[in-house]
Each structure stands twice: as structure tokens, then as C-alpha cells.
Amino acid sequence: MRSDGSKPKVVIVNSPHPDWDYERRELSELAELRVARCLSYEELLSEAGDAEIIMVGDIAHIPLTGEILKKLAKLKLISVYGVGVDAIDLKTAAELGIIVANAPEYGVEDVADHTLALLLSLLRRVPMLDRELRRVGWRDLRSDIEVIRKRFGALRRISSLTIGLIGFGRIGRTVARRLRPFGCSILGYDPYVPDEMFKELSVERVDLQELLSRSDVISIHVILTEETYHLLDEKAFKLMKDGVLIVNTSRGAVIDERALINALRSGKVLGAALDVFEKEPLPADSPLLKMQNVILTPHIGWYSEEAMAEQKRETVLNVKAFLLGEKPPYAVNVS
To answer: What's the CATH code of the domain at 310?
Structure first.
């Protein structure tokens, strides 16, 4: 509270949560709290134009561009309900003195769990077999293993495979720990992680080209930046083994979706399991929806009840620290 008795204004924009009891309990004595659902820039500027702090959830459809940030004249802090900050112009935010903070530790276990669920389901073709059994019945599907091979490709034992992890941050390392008991070989690529972290988990560190060429399964665990945008493009797919499997629980635009679709159609990629997409929500006319060799989930890998609570705690912690005159613990654009 300021000397004149007024409180800083905090606006929660497009929160993924069904209630804001925790936010009110933690912040109401320090700030004036308002909740808004914004589908357009006009609504955003109307609801949060006078805010000093905004707490943002889904803003993919209204990214905080440099132009918009300049119109939010009083803004000092953006605290994101999530890890990704690709919908925010970080450079302009820094120039304007706006701190951007995220919630990097929530959901690590959950995304790793979802990755393993997708990976194992893809390896064993679980959704495909379930769907086909219901459609044609036991006899037509199970009468000859050659029918399975022809329709779904040969199934492989996970312990005989090489799994490539692109990105070896918190989630990538957690996935590696979960994979270790299966007995598979694990490759890792991440230019920003020290050698010790790879050695600690018995993961072979390789460059991206080697990972692409040696992996039977490739799982992606990077944030979306200019460097990682379309990291897996047409050229990258050509480097991969024939019949490779792809799992993506990171950000959709890390993969050139058109190149992936072409690789799936050609058989270069035998199957894919995707929780994220270049355009979200996934368009109703996306070819992925009609592909029988693809498993799709609606960007839900982060979710569990435990993760929801952690996400709130981390997002609020950034705001509370700022209001108390401290540096937000998860600031991403200040040293």
C-alpha cells in the first residue's frame, strides 16, 4: 500500500484456473486485484490499461508485442502462468523497464509423465490398436501378426531402441530419469547444459545432427525462441532414420508442421505423438486429425491438480516479491 492509501493494480488476464481464491488470499492486502477474460487487444487495453502488474495465462491470440507494451504505460511486471514467454516481446519489455517472470518449476513431473505416456503409447500403438479392435473386431485384427505389421508397422522393444532428447533442461532430465529403467540408449542435445548433467544421468551428449541420424525415437523438450523455431524442418527430417517416431510436448512451432505432415505421409516418420501444435487450438481442418499414425492431446501435458497448485504458487510468488520491493524469484529478462 502506498503512502496515500492506494494499492497497485493487478489484473489477472486469461488465467487457466477456475477460481482465484489463492491469489486473493495472498495478494489482496498488497494490491487491488481484478480478473479479466480478454479475447482482443481492445479488451486487454480496456481491462488492464491502468495496471502496474498483469498475471497472464493464455495470450497466444493477443501476444504482448512491443506496440502493445508501449500502450500499457503503467506496467511494471508481467507474471506468466506457465513456462513459455514466447508471446511476450522480451526485448521491448526490458527497454521499457518491465520485468517478465514465469513459473518454471511447476508441471515438470507432469510433462515428463505425459511424454512417457505418449512415447509408450506410440511405441505399442495403443490408441491405434484400441480404435481398430473396436472397428473391425478381434478376428480381423488378431488373426495374423502380418496384419498388425501392415497396418501399424513393426512394434519394437523399447530396450532395443535409441531415444534422442532435444533439450536437457528440467523436463528433459526428468524424462531421462524415467527412461533409464527401461534399458534403452539415451542421446541428448542441449548446447546450454554442462557436461556434468549428461554424465550424471548416463546420457550420451551429441550434436543435433548426430541425434537426428541415430535416434529411433525423438522427444522434444525446448522452449520456443528464434533459435528453436522450426528446429525440425524438412532438412532435419531428411537426416532422420526411416521409420522414426516423434514426440513433442514442448512448443508446436519447434516443428515445421507441414514438413512433419509430409514426412508422416511418406513413411519417413512412422508415427508422431503431439501435445502441442503450431496453431492452437488445432484447426478443425488440420490433416493431423485424419492421420491414423498420429496421437493427439490438447496441450494438456502440464496438467495435474498438483501442478495447478504449483503454478499458482510460483506465479503469485513473483507478484508478491515485486509488491514487497524484492526481485521476482523467476524473472527471465533481468539478471
So the answer is: 3.40.50.720
Phi, psi of 87 (to 5 degrees): -90, 10
Establish whether 299 is a catalytic residue. yes
Q: What is the pTM of this model?
A: 0.92
Taking residue 3's Cβ as centre, other Cβ atoms within 10 Å add up to: 5
Which of 251, 257, 310, 314 does the annotation list as catalytic? 251
Query: Is 67 found in the same domain as 133?
Result: no
Beta bridge partners of 269: 244
Instruction: Examine the residue annotation and report whether 196 is marked as an active-site residue of this protein.
Output: no
**Domain total for the chain?**
2
What pLDDT, on the 0 to 100 scale, is given for residue 95? Answer: 97
User: Are 84 and 18 members of one domain?
Assistant: yes
Query: What backbone torsions phi and psi does residue 35 show, to the nearest 5 degrees?
Result: -115, 135
Among 2-6, 10-14, 179-183, where is mean pLDDT lowest? 2-6
C-alpha closest to that of 272 among 122, 163, 128, 160: 122
Asked if 25 is an active-site residue, the reply is: no
